[in-house]
Amino acid sequence: MKKAVESKLETLKEFAYFFLSTVGIVSIIYGFMNEDTLLKIILIASGLALIIQGIVYGILFESASEIIKLLKKINGLQYDGEISGTEEKEEEVQGKDGITCSKCGAEVKDSDMFCTNCGEKFTSF
Ligand SMILES: [Zn+2]
To answer: Is residue 19 domain-shared with residue 67, that is, in the same domain?
Structure first.
């Protein structure tokens, strides 16, 4: 199956994030190990800049991917992955816990021995 644009963006996001962070960290490590103060500053500074760029690109690609997914959803198209914050909510109503009185039809808890409305005695259900 051909990869959808949003999936490609997700991959790009991960790539940008990991690649830039890794290079950034390596740069910082080299910076700390370097004897030359000027080189040290340059390496650490560019390392930090790379990590920040990684985060920024990550956020950008993530947002772009989310926007595409949302647009696809609005237009009723199929999209890959999930849109954050739209996870299907668990069925909140899982059927009424109670039962109805066989005599008057009032809703009562199945733990009740008598109908709270008409006083009908419940034997077994
Ligand atoms: Zn009743």
So the answer is: yes
